[in-house]
C-alpha cells in the first residue's frame, strides 16, 4: 500500500499525502515514498513547480513512532540517532534545496513532524482552519528534529510556541511570515494551483537562481549550521527519555494522535 500520490499536469507536479485515516502521520514507508516523489519532481524536466498537499481533515499529525521502532525495552539512542538523521534531517534539508519552487498547502492540524514537511517548501498556503504546533516539550524534548522555529517565527514567538505547546493559528503564522497566504478551506487547492501556475510561467533558470539566492543568504546567516547543531541537542531529549521506564514519548504521542481521530 502506498501513502503518497504523484501526478504531473501543466508543468506542475502535485504530491499528495494520502494516509488520511491516520491524519497523515508519517511512518518510515510514508517518508521514503515522499522523498522519492520529491526526487522525481526535481529531476523531471517537464516539471517547473512542485506542490505538496494532503488528503483528509489534517495535513499531518507528525511522526508515527510506533511504526517499525524497537520496543521501549530494546530501543537505543544510537538507533534513534541513525533513523532520525536519515528521515528527519537529511530528507528535510534535501527537500529545502530542490532547485525548483515548492509550495505546501496546509489544512487542519500540522503537528511537530508535520512542520518538517511544510517548512522546507518555499511557500506555504494555509486554510483558515490550519493550526501549527510543536508540543514535544511536553515529551521532554526541546523541539522537533529540524529547527526551523527561530527562522520561521522569530525568537520570542518560537519560544512561546515551544514553551507552551499551544497551536499557532494560520493568521498568526501569516503575521510571522511563515505562511504566505491564508485562504478559506474550500479554496485551498484552487488557490495553490493558481499560484503554482503563475510561477510555472516564469523562466526556470531565474526561479532557480532566485531560490538559491534566498537559501544561501539564510545559510550565511547561520541557518544550516544551526539546524545541524540543534539536531544533536534534540537527541539529548531522547537520551533523557530513555532513562525513564517505558520510554514515555511513545505514550504521549499515542495520546495526542487519539485526540485527532
Give structural notes.
This protein is an alpha/beta fold and 261 residues long. The chain has a single domain (4-260), classed as Alpha-Beta Complex (2-enoyl-CoA Hydratase, Chain A, domain 1), CATH 3.90.226. The chain is built from ten helices and nine strands. Strands 1-2-3-4-6-9 form a six-stranded mixed sheet, sandwiched between helices. Strand 2, helix 1 and strand 3 form a beta-alpha-beta unit. Helix 2 packs antiparallel against helix 9. The longest helix is centred in the N-terminal third of the chain and has 20 residues, at 77-96. It is globular. The model has no long low-confidence stretch (mean pLDDT 92). Belongs to the enoyl-CoA hydratase/isomerase family.
Which structural traits does this protein have?
261 residues, alpha/beta, 2-enoyl-CoA Hydratase, Chain A, domain 1, 6-stranded mixed β-sheet, 3-stranded mixed β-sheet, 9 strands, globular, Enoyl-CoA hydratase/carnithine racemase, Enoyl-CoA_hydra/iso, catalytic activity, ClpP/crotonase-like_dom_sf
Quick summary of this structure?
With 261 residues, this protein is an alpha/beta fold. It has one domain: 2-enoyl-CoA Hydratase, Chain A, domain 1 (Alpha-Beta Complex), CATH 3.90.226.10.
CATH topology: 2-enoyl-CoA Hydratase, Chain A, domain 1
Multimerization state: single chain
Please tell me what the overall shape is: globular
Order of helices and strands: EEHEHEEHEEHHEHEHHHH
Q: What is the percentage of strand-forming residues? A: 5-15%
Strand order in space, largest sheet: 1-2-3-4-6-9
Task: Return the CATH class.
Answer: Alpha Beta
Question: Count of DSSP helices?
Answer: 10
| pLDDT < 50 stretches | none
The radius of gyration is: 18 Å
Number of strands: 9
Class per helix and strand makeup? alpha/beta
Q: What's the CATH H-level superfamily name?
A: 2-enoyl-CoA Hydratase, Chain A, domain 1
Distance between the termini: 21 Å
Report the CATH architecture: Alpha-Beta Complex
Protein name: Enoyl-CoA hydratase/carnithine racemase
Family: Belongs to the enoyl-CoA hydratase/isomerase family.
GO molecular function, one term: catalytic activity
Organism: Actinocorallia herbida
Amino acid at each position: 500500500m502506498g501513502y503518497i500520490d504523484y501526478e504531473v499536469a501543466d508543468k506542475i507536479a502535485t504530491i499528495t499525502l494520502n494516509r488520511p485515516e491516520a491524519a497523515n502521520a508519517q511512518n518510515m514507508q510514508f517518508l521514503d515514498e515522499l522523498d522519492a516523489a520529491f526526487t522525481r519532481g526535481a529531476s523531471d524536466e517537464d516539471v517547473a513547480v512542485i506542490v505538496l498537499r494532503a488528503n483528509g481533515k489534517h495535513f499531518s499529525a507528525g511522526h508515527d513512532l510506533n511504526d517499525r521502532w524497537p520496543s521501549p525495552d530494546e530501543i537505543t539512542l544510537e538507533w534513534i540517532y541513525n533513523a532520525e538523521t536519515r528521515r528527519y534531517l537529511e530528507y528535510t534539508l534535501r527537500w529545502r534545496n530542490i532547485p525548483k519552487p515548492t509550495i505546501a498547502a496546509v489544512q487542519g492540524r500540522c503537528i511537530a513532524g508535520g512542520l518538517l514537511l511544510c517548512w522546507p517548501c518555499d511557500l506555504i498556503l494555509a486554510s483558515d482552519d490550519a493550526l501549527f504546533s510543536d508540543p514535544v516539550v511536553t515529551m521532554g524534548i526541546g523541539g522537533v528534529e529540524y529547527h526551523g522555529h527561530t527562522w520561521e517565527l522569530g525568537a520570542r514567538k518560537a519560544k512561546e510556541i515551544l514553551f507552551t505547546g499551544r497551536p499557532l493559528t494560520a493568521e498568526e503564522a501569516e503575521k510571522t511570515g511563515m505562511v504566505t497566504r491564508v485562504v478559506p478551506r474550500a479554496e485551498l487547492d484552487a488557490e495553490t494551483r493558481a499560484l503554482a501556475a503563475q510561477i510555472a510561467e516564469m523562466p526556470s533558470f531565474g526561479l532557480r537562481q532566485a531560490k538559491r539566492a534566498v537559501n544561501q543568504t539564510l545559510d550565511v546567516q547561520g541557518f544550516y549550521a544551526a539546524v545541524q547543531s540543534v539536531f544533536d541537542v534534540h537527541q539529548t531529549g531522547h537520551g533523557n527519555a530513555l532513562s525513564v521506564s517505558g520510554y514515555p514519548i511513545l505514550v504521549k504521542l499515542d495520546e495526542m494522535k487519539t485526540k485527532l481521530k
